[in-house]
Design a protein that fits this description.
Organism: Planococcus shenhongbingii
Keywords: Amino-acid biosynthesis, Aromatic amino acid biosynthesis, Isomerase
Helix content: 10-25%
Distance between the termini: 33 Å
CATH superfamily: RutC-like
Shape: globular
Strand content: 25-35%
Largest sheet: 5 strands, mixed
InterPro entries: Chorismate_mutase_AroH, RutC-like_sf
CATH class: Alpha Beta
Radius of gyration: 14 Å
Number of domains: 1
Structural class: alpha/beta
Oligomer: single chain
Protein name: chorismate mutase
EC number: 5.4.99.5
């Protein structure tokens, strides 16, 4: 069964090294929390708020060990007034036997504000 796994993270500034590091960190945490192997991933869609333009977050995923051939696409989020700035969101489509309610969606840094109901331990996720 294919399931969607959501994740989001914020960066301190729109700097290429921050965007790439934090995107990689988020994707690896999503994979760890849901026992996902790269071969289980059908595709990944990454969106950023419009204030992030210094780097393609997909590059971070493609450079992770064993993730080279996972299809990844980037896009921008809607520019809604008052939305969380400097935010990277990931939708990972994975083959899994986990039930929908067993999926662990991952929110890191200030992105815990997006879905506090899905964050198990806010203090542990805010680094």
């Amino acid at each position: 069964m294919i399931r969607g796994v959501r994740g989001a993270i914020t960066v301190a500034a729109d700097q290429p090294e921050d965007v790439l590091r934090e995107t990689g960190r988020l994707v690896l945490e999503m994979a760890k929390e849901n026992r996902i192997k790269p071969d289980d991933v059908a595709s990944v869609i990454i969106s950023t708020t419009t204030d992030i333009a210094s780097a393609f977050p997909a590059k971070a995923v493609r450079t992770l060990e064993n993730w080279t051939y996972v299809p990844v696409m980037c896009t921008h989020e809607m520019d809604v007034p008052g939305s969380l700035p400097l935010c990277i969101r990931v939708m990972m489509h994975v083959n899994t036997t986990l039930a929908q309610k067993e999926i662990q969606h991952v929110y890191l840094n200030d992105a815990v504000k997006l879905r506090p109901d899905l964050v198990k331990n806010n203090e542990a996720k805010m680094l």
